[in-house]
Write a structure and sequence with these properties.
Helix content is about 45%, strand content about 15%. By secondary structure, it is an alpha/beta fold. Bound molecules: coenzyme A. Coenzyme A binds near residues 66, 112 and 135.
Length: about 250
């Protein structure tokens, strides 16, 4: 194993039916090196995470995540970029595609790729130490791990322009007001609250939650007629599976 792979780690623990997935590279503020992204991909494939009823993502130390590892972000050619998104860079879409409900517990810095990871989860809970910035444009790049797309769809183009072009530093209350966060809690309480919300999600009919997640994503990019059809097909399918009576 390489030194980087040894250093970059993701910690997984179970709390009953819940899995807590912790970015565990605190000395580098959990900066997302490709080794850390790969460790996150590997964590998603473990039985502890795969068999969980809900998953909480969080970060060890004083930050949720300081974004892409700037030591690795160099000028890559098109082939290397394509290879990256076939490799560890696909972790963001893997998180977004989980049928299991996901909650981010955020404290401290939540920058760049860290915010993109949080945006790939269903629910974001931050304590009021959290700071959100998308510094990519200032680095001569753009958010490209699904975050630009998710931000536009979540907040609209005007807000997305503000955050992506200006790279504004946004505190937790502002992020909540903008619609980036589900809830803001006092310092140190994000993980506990995320576990409580994850527990609520875990108690719901799992198939209905999984189908609702997919339907929400699908209708966001559908015509009105197609969106209504998705709703009704999802309802019809769930009714037939008996999910509604659980
Ligand atoms: N990539 C690689 N290493 C990072 C990092 C990143 N994105 N963010 C922080 N680190 C490392 C620092 O290099 C430092 O390592 P060192 O102790 O070996 O020197 C360590 O994490 C602690 O960071 P430090 O800068 O000392 O903490 P700080 O509180 O003074 O500043 C930040 C925190 C987040 C403001 C600052 O680290 C920073 O600007 N990081 C880069 C953020 C960024 O541009 N992310 C890319 C998004 S695309």
């Amino acid at each position: 194993m390489s030194a980087a792979a040894t250093e970059a780690a993701v910690h997984v623990e179970r709390h009953g039916g819940l899995a807590v997935v912790t970015l565990n590279r605190p000395a580098k503020l959990n900066a997302l090196s490709s080794a850390l992204e790969q460790a996150l991909l590997d964590a998603l494939a473990t039985p502890e995470v795969g068999g969980a009823d809900a998953i909480v993502f969080t970060g060890e130390g004083r930050a949720f995540c300081a974004g892409a590892d700037v030591a690795e972000v160099t000028s890559l050619d098109a082939e290397a970029i394509a290879a990256y998104y076939r490799g560890s860079g696909r972790v963001y879409e893997a998180v977004a595609a989980l049928g299991t409900p996901t909650v981010s517990a955020i404290h401290g810095y939540c920058l760049g790729g860290g915010l993109e990871l949080a945006l790939a989860t269903d629910i974001r809970i931050a304590d009021d130490t959290a700071v959100f910035v998308l510094p990519e444009v200032d680095l001569g790049i753009v958010p490209s791990s699904g975050g630009l797309t998710r931000l536009v769809r979540m907040l609209g183009t005007a807000r997305a322009r503000e955050l992506i072009l200006l790279g504004s530093k946004v505190d937790a209350e502002t992020a909540h007001r903008l619609g980036l966060l589900t809830e803001v809690v006092p310092p140190g309480e994000a993980r506990e609250r995320a576990l409580a919300v994850a527990d609520t999600l875990a108690g719901k009919p799992a198939l209905a939650v999984a189908v609702a997640k997919q339907a929400i994503d699908a209708v966001a990019e559908s015509s009105n007629a197609a969106a209504l059809l998705i709703e009704r097909l999802a309802y019809g399918m769930l009714n037939q599976t008996g999910s509604a009576s659980r």
